[in-house]
Structure formats: structure tokens, C-alpha cells
Design a protein that fits this description.
This is MASE1 domain-containing protein. By secondary structure, the chain is α+β, with helices and mostly antiparallel strands. The chain has 21 helices and 7 strands.
Length: 550
């Protein structure tokens, strides 16, 4: 068993060595001049960031062998000093920096988090070290026939911009693959990538605009072409602000490729300046995208916290509604028991008390029983329990308002009631009763219209409760006549809220809104409620802490 594991480990090390050597040779065969970008620098940092430490020796060996072979072939042309420097693998120079950033600066603070600040520091330090190595390498050449490749400050700047451009092109894409890859979910992830708004905006708007600018820059003179090349950052910035750091990776990479394709092979001053500005701008886009992504995730987390609070409030309201229903049922049972008990007591009292006094006791017994039933009805109407919410809205409220001398009409429309859960039913009734009591507190209110409409939009159920109270000045006398019954409206309908603010708080528990509008002849209360039965599920992701993105 131990030998088998030992053999498998060595085979893995060998595979890592050979695979990196082949990738190194392949990317060296297509790499471009220093004025553009050095992709092999990006390959080195990508491997050091993603490959575990135990395979670093294999990677170093995979680069050292082809580098030494190429350097030894140039011994006669460039001399032993150049060969000695060239045989030092560039991967060895980047290892201490990447180790420092991984272990001390914590580029990966968690499995699916990236510290963009530490990443940009790592890219900058590696670019400086590799540029110094390349400058030392070209400075060690004993004689150079072509004066355009002599070691100058412009050459050093060209190496720096080329290495930085190569790093900032490949490294973010590798990190996106690392963050988004989930074993067994590749097909679903690809389908989601092609269907999200980032892909639509990038492929449909940003990429065509950048490519069009590239074509225009290739047809005009140098000075105007540089302005057009820098203008490519505008659609890249728009995409970054809208979608975050992944958009910066897409747009920034496309801009670097397009600008690099337009530059000449020789590292002239204008080329270096354009690439330097471009590298700084793309780095800023990554930082901006990280902030945007962090803010989006923070807003999403706050939204989820608010949703949890609303869910808890809905559950508490539903629990209170169940308790009120049980209390109403118990009160009705108690009222029935009181009726039987009082009947037996009165039957025995008739033998010793005159009929006149017995009749008075009977009226008091009936009044007490009616009061108990009235309290039970205010807690939870029996019509609601027997025949549902429409019956309670049409009969219970109508009877109560009729006793108060006011007209009432109820209209229920829409086909969304079949999707509403019991919690939203309770809220409809309570909001309707509270709005009616609030409107009927106006002495001029003579009649009430209740409209309830339910529906379903994009998989989410909603219901609108609209209560209209008609104000008539000539009905003040009628209100004074029925003032006793009007005072009992709140008790009969089981309401306890006293104003629009309390009603608005109740409605917000169901993700809705409430509006109160008053005119000379009408007062209207409109409430929008959302049901939580068919809410669309949102992907939960980790929220960032500092300048992190996930």
C-alpha cells in the first residue's frame, strides 16, 4: 500500500514537471515582443498560485531543463555570462514573492475568496523582479549589432509593461476558473454563464464597441490612434461598474489584446507609454470591480437579513393568528357551556324566585353569552373558519358596518387566491379591518368600498387590498347617532393598530407597501402584499470582508 502511494506521488510529480515544460515551450513559441505582453510571466504566476507547494520543485525542474537547453545553444553567440544568467529559471525568482503573498498577505483568505489588493501587489512585485532579470540578461550581452536593443531605460520600461500586461491578462482568468469550478456542475455552470446578464452585456455591447474602436484605430494616424486606444477603457469601465471584477477581467483582457495587436514590435516611447497607461487603468478596473462586487454582495447579504427578519415577522404573525383562532374556539365553547349552566340554574331558581326576577336573570345570561360570542368573533370570525376568507370579508365586516350605520361593498377579483398561503389570507383580513377602522374614524364617512385583487407575476404571488371611504358632510348627524357602535368597530373587528405607520409596518412584513390618500370627498388606503410561497430562490454566496471578491 505504501509503495503504491509512493509510486502515485512520484507519477504526479513527473506529470506536473512534463506538463509545465510543455506549456512553457508552447507559450514561448507564441509570445510577442516586449512592447506587447509576456504571457509566459502570467503562466509562471498562475502555476505558483494554484499549484500546491509540494509540486513547486517539479515545476522548477520543468522550466529549468528547457531553459538550460536553449541557453546552452546560445553560448557561442552571447557568451558564458549571458548563458549563466539565462540558465537561472525565472520561476525561481517569482517563488519567494508568491509564497510571501500566499502565506503572509493571504491572497486566498478562504476557499472561494480572493484578496484583490494582495493579488495586485503580487503581480507588481513579480513584474519588477522579472523585468530586472530581463534587463540584466540583455545587459550581459558583450556586443549588440542592432542599436534598438541596447540596454536603455526604454527597454527596461518595455520589459516592465510587458511582464505586467502578461500577468494581469492570465492571472485573473485562472482565478475565475478556480472560484467558479465545482466538481460535477460544469455543464450547469456553463449554461448559467451563457445566460446571465454579464455575458449578454459583454458579448452584445462592450466587445463589439471595443473591436470597432480597434478597427478605427488601425485606419487612422498614430496620435489619434492612441486616443482611440485609450478610449477602449470607457466600455470596459462601464461593464466593470455594472457587473464587478469578472467584468473587469473580460473587458480588460480584451482591451490589452486589441491594443497590443495594434502596437509595433519595437518598444518605442509611445508604445511603452500606451501600455503603461493601459496596465495602470486595467489595475484600477480590477480594484473598482472588487469594490463593486463587494458592495453587491454586501447589499445582497443585507437583503437576505431583511428577508429573514420579514420571514420571522410573518411566522410570528401566523403564530399569533393561530392562537387567536384557538382562543376564539375556546370562547365559543365557554359561551355554550355558560348557556347550558345558566339554563340549569334558572330552571332551579324558578321554584323559589318569581317569574319577573327570573326573566331579568335570563336577559343578563343572554347578554353575557352574546358578549362572549362577540369577543370570539373579534378574535377570529366563525364565518372565516367555516367558509373561508371571502365570506369573512363579505359578511363579518358588512354586519359590523351595518350596525354602525354605514354602507359596505366588497369586490374580490383575480385568479391568484389559489396560490396564496394562509399567512397572506390572515394579513388580507387584518389589513382590511385596520384600514376600515382607520377610515371610519372620520365622522363624515358614510360608506366603505373594499376591493381585493390577487395575481401572480414572475413566479411571485401578490395581492392588492384597497379600501375607499366616501366622506359626505351631510352624514355627520348619522355618525353622531351611531357613535356608540362606531366606537366599538375596533373591538368588533379585532384591530389594535391606531395609525398609518403601524399599518405600514404590518404590510412591510410581507414585502409590500401601503399608501394613504385623502381628498375632500374620499379617503383611500391601498396595500400591496407579497406571498412567500413561490418566491424565486437566490444564489447564496459569501460576503466579502475587506477588498475581497468571490
Amino acid at each position: 500500500m505504501g509503495k503504491q502511494l509512493w509510486r502515485n506521488e512520484w507519477l504526479t510529480q513527473l506529470a506536473a514537471c512534463i506538463g509545465y515544460a510543455l506549456a512553457f515551450l508552447a507559450i514561448h513559441s507564441v509570445t510577442s515582443a516586449p512592447a506587447h505582453w509576456h504571457l509566459y510571466a502570467g503562466l509562471q504566476v498562475v502555476c505558483l498560485l494554484l499549484v500546491p507547494y509540494r509540486y513547486w520543485a517539479a515545476l522548477l525542474l520543468g522550466e529549468a531543463i528547457p531553459s538550460a537547453y536553449e541557453a546552452w545553444q546560445c553560448l557561442d553567440s552571447f557568451g558564458p555570462t549571458w548563458v549563466a544568467i539565462r540558465m537561472v529559471p525565472e520561476l525561481l525568482l517569482g517563488m519567494p514573492i508568491v509564497w510571501l503573498c500566499r502565506s503572509r498577505l493571504h491572497i486566498f483568505p478562504a476557499r472561494h475568496l480572493v484578496n484583490i489588493k494582495a493579488l495586485l501587489i503580487c503581480i507588481l512585485l513579480v513584474s519588477v523582479v522579472l523585468s530586472a532579470y530581463s534587463y540584466a540578461l540583455i545587459s550581459s550581452v558583450p556586443h549588440i549589432a542592432d542599436s534598438s536593443f541596447r540596454p536603455t531605460a526604454m527597454i527596461a520600461a518595455g520589459y516592465l509593461t510587458g511582464n505586467y500586461a502578461g500577468l494581469i491578462t492570465l492571472v485573473p482568468w485562472s482565478l475565475i476558473v478556480r472560484l467558479d469550478y465545482r466538481k460535477g456542475h460544469l455543464k450547469r455552470r456553463l449554461k448559467r454563464i451563457w445566460s446571465n446578464t454579464l455575458s449578454i452585456d459583454a458579448l452584445g455591447i462592450a466587445a463589439p464597441v471595443i473591436l470597432l474602436m480597434m478597427i478605427v484605430a488601425s485606419k487612422i494616424d498614430t496620435v489619434q490612434a492612441e486616443l482611440v486606444e485609450l478610449s477602449m477603457l470607457i466600455p470596459a469601465a462601464w461593464l466593470t461598474v455594472k457587473h464587478g471584477w469578472r467584468a473587469a477581467a473580460i473587458a480588460g483582457t480584451l482591451v490589452i489584446i486589441c491594443v497590443g495587436a495594434l502596437q509595433p514590435d519595437l518598444p518605442t516611447r509611445s508604445v511603452v507609454e500606451v501600455m503603461a497607461v493601459l496596465c495602470v487603468a486595467v489595475s484600477g478596473l480590477y480594484a473598482l470591480g472588487a469594490k463593486v462586487t463587494a458592495q453587491n454582495l454586501r447589499d445582497e447579504r443585507e437583503y437576505e437579513i431583511a428577508e429573514e427578519a420579514q420571514k420571522l415577522a410573518r411566522e410570528n404573525l401566523m403564530l399569533s393568528e393561530r392562537r387567536m383562532r384557538r382562543a376564539a374556539e375556546q370562547l365559543e365553547f365557554v359561551a355554550g357551556s355558560l348557556h347550558i349552566t345558566h339554563a340549569r340554574v334558572l330552571d332551579h331558581m324558578r321554584r323559589i324566585i318569581p317569574n319577573v326576577e327570573t326573566h331579568g336573570f335570563y336577559k343578563q345570561s343572554v347578554r353575557a353569552q352574546e358578549q362572549v360570542y362577540r369577543v370570539a368573533e373579534s378574535l377570529h370570525p366563525s364565518v372565516w373558519r367555516d367558509r373561508g376568507l371571502p365570506a369573512a370579508l363579505n359578511e363579518t365586516i358588512a354586519r359590523t358596518l351595518d350596525e354602525a350605520g354605514m354602507g359596505y361593498r366588497c369586490e374580490i377579483s383575480g385568479r391568484g387566491f389559489m396560490w396564496l398561503d394562509s399567512a397572506i389570507h390572515s394579513s388580507i383580513y387584518r389589513v382590511a379591518c385596520e384600514a376600515i377602522v382607520f377610515i371610519c374614524s372620520q365622522r363624515m364617512c358614510s360608506r366603505v368600498m373594499l376591493r381585493v385583487r390577487a395575481g401572480k407575476t414572475r413566479g411571485r404571488c401578490w395581492v392588492v387590498v384597497r379600501v375607499e371611504g366616501y366622506l359626505e358632510h351631510n352624514q355627520v348627524a348619522n355618525a353622531v347617532y351611531f357613535r356608540g357602535h362606531r366606537r366599538e368597530l375596533a373591538a368588533k373587528l379585532g384591530t389594535h393598530l391606531v395609525g398609518a405607520d403601524e399599518m405600514r409596518t404590518h404590510v412591510k412584513a410581507f414585502g409590500g407597501e401601503l399608501h394613504v390618500r385623502s381628498t375632500v370627498d374620499r379617503m383611500t388606503v391601498t396595500a400591496l402584499l407579497h406571498s412567500n410561497v413561490a418566491e424565486m430562490q437566490k444564489e447564496r454566496v459569501s460576503a466579502p470582508l475587506r477588498l475581497w471578491v468571490s
